[in-house]
Amino acid sequence: METTLVKSLLPEEDVCYLSEKKFDYSEETVNGWVHVIIEDFGLPAAYTPRTCRLLVRIPPGYPNANPDMFWTQPDIRLNQTGGLPRSSEHHEAYTGQSWQRWSRHIPPNSWRAGRDNLRTFLRTVQLELLKGI
Question: What is the pLDDT of residue 95?
């Protein structure tokens, strides 16, 4: 039986990180962007549901260009109020599906071009989610 290796669209260090964290993920190219979809991404107790699909859009020029914002499926709600989290009321279509857009941004001048990576960005996503707002 012949094995076919599939080359990742991501840099090797990002593939290693995703593997290390045992994320179930897929990737595809859309108009020069790499879309990384992580299945069963865990959410803090402030949200319902407690897991989601997480979409990260990696821009052309990455890792010199930083990812910005993130998207989830299904819609995420705040447990305390039942409302939508701050700046997540918009939806955008990617991969033929509707995604809840979280307009959360890396602070200006904090992305270290060529040094930061998907690990850095997902840490930023997790810190934002821990705020529970």
Answer: 86
For residue 6, the model assigns a pLDDT of 54
**Helix boundaries (H) for 21-72:** none
How far apart are alpha carbons 93 and 95 in whole angstroms?
7
* pTM flag (> 0.85): yes
Strand partners, 56: 36
Q: For residue 26, give its domain range.
A: 12-130
Any domain includes 2: no
C-alpha to C-alpha distance for 111 and 126, rounded to whole angstroms: 16
Burial of 70 (0-12, 13-18, 19+ CB in 10 A): buried
Are 47 and 76 a contacting pair, CB within 8 Å? yes
Determine, yes or no, domain membership for 51: yes
Divide the 133 residues of the chain into consecutive groups of 10 and give the mean pLDDT of each group. Answer: 62 96 96 96 97 97 94 97 96 95 86 93 95 94
* Domain total in the chain: 1
